[in-house]
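Consider the tokenized backbone below.
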């Protein structure tokens, strides 16, 4: 059976029970259906566009009510496409972009925008936290450095610069948690979503007391953590309230699982359930992630470590850039046709053309964590063509991902392979070729277009007892790609040139590291 046939199934052939998976994505909100074997049910997909509000100050915000209204419309549409088979749905699960946070007032109403990981306004608070705490100890304790993408800096910024928001907020939740509160009047914070905040003490399995005290907040102002009970049962929500009980009667009494972080879900959905396979994703943004047993004794320098559940952690690094770089270059440059671009990417030698780029369009996350970093293009001259600039941008993303992957090496077995996912990467054979040459490890394209939603669905199937573990789901991998030795060496040379440019950028801008 081919990888593609393992990935999808027509509705009439789908095996019950079915799982409804909801995805709070950065570019869109989606509702999808998967069958008992973890296959996407063809046609059972509804999508609505999403987008952050950016401004020159560094804001990257979303509207909670708009997000929820769009996701509700997706659920309506997905159920309509199922027809009578909506009654075969036995669980609902969600995954969400992380981190994000919003405040609710004393009556449970939204009183702030959704602040997202891409918001860079808290730069000064990062430096203040570094002056007050031993960042190295906090990094090992929470798995996260001080950075504008995490809550210690973001909520300090809110307290100082948006005091009315901070005063009005009695509860702080993620967008996914807020959606569930609307439906059930209560919610849980999964370990994966809580980890992405930078406020979870991964050694004590609770909200970090010292950081909360510094913020002037209490653990009770956050959702309770969704750890399993003594019988190994995951806390779930049942019994839709109010108008939702009538609107989605087929979903009223079935379990709704705690929202899973999208990165953790993507690993599970792509078959990267242990250190033998490493997930590398280029969607809107980019990331490299590996699942390892918990607890990780020492988080590798420059990387994060998030809890997935009681027994597993996720180690890796993420970029603010990925497919958004390719999209910006397409909109900005006078490029040839897609076919001509692909042909050029496939024959291009890494690092050729004398160009180097730092793809920091919205600050840097891993591995340097310079939130004030900005994009740099070096080596321009009049002889260069638009396709060369385009290729340099795509290569720049690959080189940053390779730098993250290199720091993961101590956690990986000798024969570890990489699994490529993300719409931007899977749409371009040339970009995949660049990536495998940058990594120097075998790369398997993933034949699943919605890896995060699939991973969330697999978790639900495990909770239902249909599947023993996510590792038992069919693999949906394409033919192996191998690095070309000379191209890998050329890519390493390009990586060193990028790193020199990075050091100069840090010196030019006076950025704090």
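A designed sequence for it:
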């Amino acid at each position: 059976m081919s990888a593609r046939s393992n990935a999808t199934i027509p509705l009439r052939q789908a095996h019950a029970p079915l799982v409804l998976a909801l995805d709070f994505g950065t570019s869109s909100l989606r509702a999808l259906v998967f069958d008992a074997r973890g296959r996407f049910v063809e046609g059972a997909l509804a999508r609505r566009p999403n987008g952050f509000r950016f401004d020159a100050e560094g804001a990257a915000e979303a509207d909670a009510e708009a997000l929820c209204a769009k996701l509700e419309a997706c659920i309506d549409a997905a159920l309509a496409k199922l027809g009578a088979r909506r009654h075969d749905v036995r669980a609902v699960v969600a995954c969400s972009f992380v981190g994000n946070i919003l405040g609710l007032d004393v009556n449970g109403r939204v009183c702030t925008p959704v602040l997202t990981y891409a918001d860079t306004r808290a730069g000064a608070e990062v430096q203040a936290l570094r002056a007050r705490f031993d960042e190295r100890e906090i990094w090992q304790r929470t798995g996260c450095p001080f950075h504008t993408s995490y809550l210690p800096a973001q909520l300090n910024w809110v307290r100082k610069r948006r005091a009315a928001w901070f005063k009005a907020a009695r509860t702080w939740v993620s967008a996914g948690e807020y959606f569930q509160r609307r439906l059930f009047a209560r919610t849980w914070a999964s370990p994966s979503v809580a980890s992405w905040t930078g406020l979870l003490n991964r050694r004590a399995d609770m909200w970090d007391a010292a950081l909360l005290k510094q913020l002037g907040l209490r653990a009770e102002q956050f959702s309770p953590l969704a750890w399993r009970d003594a019988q190994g049962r995951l806390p779930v929500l049942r019994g839709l309230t109010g108008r939702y009980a009538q609107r989605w009667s087929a979903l009223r009494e079935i379990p709704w699982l705690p929202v899973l972080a999208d990165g953790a879900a993507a690993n599970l959905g792509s078959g990267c359930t242990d250190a033998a396979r490493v997930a590398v994703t280029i969607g809107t943004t980019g990331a490299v992630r590996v699942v390892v047993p918990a607890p990780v004794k020492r988080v590798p320098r420059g990387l994060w470590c998030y809890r997935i559940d009681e027994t597993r952690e996720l180690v890796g690094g993420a970029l603010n850039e990925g497919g958004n770089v390719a999209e910006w270059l397409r909109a900005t440059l006078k490029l040839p046709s897609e076919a001509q671009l692909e042909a050029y990417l496939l024959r291009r030698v890494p690092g050729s053309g004398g160009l180097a780029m730092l793809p920091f369009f919205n600050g840097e996350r891993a591995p340097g964590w310079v939130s004030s970093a900005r994009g740099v293009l070096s080596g321009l001259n009049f002889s260069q063509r638009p396709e060369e600039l385009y290729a340099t941008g795509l290569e720049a993303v690959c080189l940053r991902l390779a730098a993250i992957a290199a720091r993961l090496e101590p956690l990986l077995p000798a024969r570890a392979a990489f699994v490529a996912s993300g719409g931007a990467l899977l749409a371009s054979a040339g970009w995949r070729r660049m990536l495998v040459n940058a990594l120097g490890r075998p790369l398997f394209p993933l034949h699943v277009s919605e890896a995060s939603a699939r991973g969330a669905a697999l978790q639900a199937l495990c909770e239902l007892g249909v599947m023993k573990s996510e590792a038992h789901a069919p693999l949906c991998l394409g033919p192996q790609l191998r690095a070309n030795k000379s191209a890998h060496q050329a890519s390493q040379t390009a990586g060193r040139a990028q790193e020199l440019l990075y050091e100069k950028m840090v010196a030019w801008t006076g950025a704090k590291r």
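The radius of gyration is 22 Å.
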